[in-house]
Amino acid sequence: MIESKAYGEVLQIRMSRFPDFPSGMWVCAYLVDGLLVDSGPAYTAQELTDFLKDKGVKKVVNTHYHEDHISANKFLQDACGVEIFAHPLAVEKINGPASLYPYQEEVWGYPVPSLVKPLGDFIETKKYRFEVIPTPGHDLDHVCLFERSQGWLFTGDLYVTTRPMSSRSIFDMPQILVDLKKVRALNPRIMFPAPTYVVMEPAEKLEKTIDYLEGVGARVEELHSRGMDTEQVRQEIFGVEGIIAEMTQQQFSSLNIVKSFLKKNER
Ligand SMILES: [Zn+2]
Fold first, then answer.
1. What CATH number is given to the structural domain containing 102?
2. Which residues span the domain enclosing 88?
3. Does any domain span residue 29?
4. Is residue 146 helix, strand or coil?
5. CA 66 / ligand 1 centre spacing (Å)
């Protein structure tokens, strides 16, 4: 299922295979001035392509190679001849076959390989210029896009909530903190995240997230320095592991947050 909502010139397109599920099962793409930011999961790829057929989409940027952001690429290439761009580290992954965990296959589905070109420092549309902001904490190829004259910030998966309680093992939490500070410094007027709702004047939410993660990081270090192991630290900070850990075969967990903050000491 897809649904859309306009925020001025930016059209948000929300996509889900399980629209009745309480949360976490939606992902958004954004269309502005012929540029599509992300192309969503495989299960909505045809529906998205049908929806976009008469909307003048010329270019697509994938914020990163994860399967819920790239899977209509090939459909859009075939139907509308779009040019697609992603971070150089993402190109080979998107142009080749994907490998997914069972939960990813169930919720998002397998992407068909597509032809993606490497992104430069910015991408232009008829009216706008979007700066490419590398934000490698979520994954090494992750980027945000910033349109300075409008204050539009497209954050992919960088921002989910002000209090993240779980992460994948690939997430680098100290780097995510650096990334959040980097986009906060841009002073965006509107933030367009992929996994959640549009945020107007996002400074406060970004600050809250930064404060929360800095607090978690400091507590992890403190408890660990007192001799607690990772599981004891996790229990002390987060309590019972959330349902998402079970649903994702432990791919998402609060233990990963603790481990990521402790990895910093090993570098
Ligand atoms: Zn992602």
1. 3.60.15.10
2. 2-203
3. yes
4. strand
5. 5
| 115 assigned to some structural domain | yes
Q: Report the number of distinct structural domains present in the chain.
A: 1
- pLDDT, residue 161, reads 95
State the number of CA atoms in the 13 A half-sphere of 117 facing the CB: 9
Percentage of residues of the chain with pLDDT beyond 70: 98
Q: Determine contact, residues 153/205, Cβ cutoff 8 Å.
A: no
The protein residues having their C-beta less than 5 angstroms from ligand 1 (an ion) are: 66, 157
Diameter of the chain measured on Cα atoms: 61
User: What is d(CA 266, CA 125) in angstroms, rounded to the nearest whole number?
Assistant: 43
User: Measured in angstroms, how far is the CA atom of residue 109 from the centroid of ligand 1?
Assistant: 14
**Does a structural domain hold residue 106?**
yes
Give the model's pLDDT for residue 196.
86
pLDDT band at 241 (very low <50, low <70, confident <90, very high): confident
CA of residue 245 to ligand 1 center, whole Å:
16
Q: Each residue of 18-66: pLDDT tens digit?
A: 888 766 589 999 999 999 999 999 999 999 999 999 999 999 999 999 9
CB-based contact 73:46 (threshold 8 Å): no
Structural domain includes residue 215: no
